[in-house]
Write a structure and sequence with these properties.
The chain has about 230 residues and is α+β, with helices and mostly antiparallel strands. It folds into 2 domains: about 5-95, Ribosomal Protein L25, Chain P, CATH 2.40.240; about 100-180, Beta Complex (RNA Polymerase Alpha Subunit, Chain A, domain 2), CATH 2.170.120. Helices cover about 15% and strands about 35% of the residues. It has a 6-stranded mixed barrel. Strands 10-7-9-12 form a 4-stranded mixed beta sheet, with no helix packed on it. The model is unreliable at about 210-215 (pLDDT under 50).
């Protein structure tokens, strides 16, 4: 049986009014669908709703005055930190009506390919399903022990509870086991425009250059002696 949650019709719709409402511990909400022609703004107790959400409740019995409606928690809006609930959308259900919603996918086990260096990849964290409100699963568990390197698990291969039908594309991959990627380290090229040091060239010494320079003074001295002899 769905958990009951009391709600009050909300008349004030402005931002200031809703902030003031949150300050009293209540959460702005809205209910639509079912036989309703228009959505109805509501307020609900913040603690009661948070408790139901923590238990994994997706379908609630909403008591609005003397009326009760079975509703699906369609959307929950949080603050920027993802901690404080700001607003809730409820979709009223008709008797015998199936619902479509997203359910979390959880992987269980260790792929056998891990022993050969394989890596497990969790590619699909939730799938959309269709079922009766009473059959909504809290989560869907997928065993990965049998996965070898190169193996895949598709949505069509998931074992779903009785009465639950997958709406997500059957060929979508839920998980895989692949070889670990080894990153090759490549030396960084010089940045464009960066100064490059020029190659230092050493001038080759010409053979005999030093000897000719040393012999020049001796030749001049000999010539001077000849002049003195004259």
């Amino acid at each position: 049986m769905a958990q009951e949650l009391k709600a009050e019709v909300r008349k004030d719709k402005g931002t200031r009014q809703m902030n003031r409402l949150r300050g009293t511990g209540r959460i702005p909400a809205v209910v639509y669908g079912g036989d309703r022609k228009e959505s109805v703004p509501l307020s609900i107790d913040g603690r009661e709703f948070a408790s139901a959400l923590k238990k994994g409740e997706r379908v609630l019995s909403l008591a609005i005055g003397d009326q009760k409606a079975q509703v699906l928690v369609k959307d929950v809006q949080y603050d920027a930190l993802g901690e404080v609930i700001l607003h809730v959308d409820f979709n009223e259900l008709r008797a015998g009506e199936k619902v479509r919603l997203s359910v979390a996918v959880v992987l269980r086990g260790t792929p056998k390919g891990a022993a050969d260096g394989g890596v497990l990849n969790h590619l699909l964290h939730e799938i959309e399903v269709e079922c009766d409100p009473a059959a909504i699963p809290e989560k869907l568990t997928v065993d990965v022990d049998h996965l070898g390197i190169g193996d895949l698990i598709h949505v069509s291969e998931m074992k779903l509870p009785d009465g639950v039908k997958a709406v997500t594309k059957a060929t979508d991959v839920v998980a895989s086991c692949t070889e670990a990627r080894v990153e090759e380290v490549v030396a960084a090229a010089p940045a464009e425009g960066a100064a490059v040091e020029p190659e230092v060239l050493t001038e080759k010494k010409v053979e005999g250059e030093g000897e000719e320079g040393a012999a020049a003074p001796d030749a001049k001295a000999a010539e001077a002696k000849k002049k003195e002899g004259k």
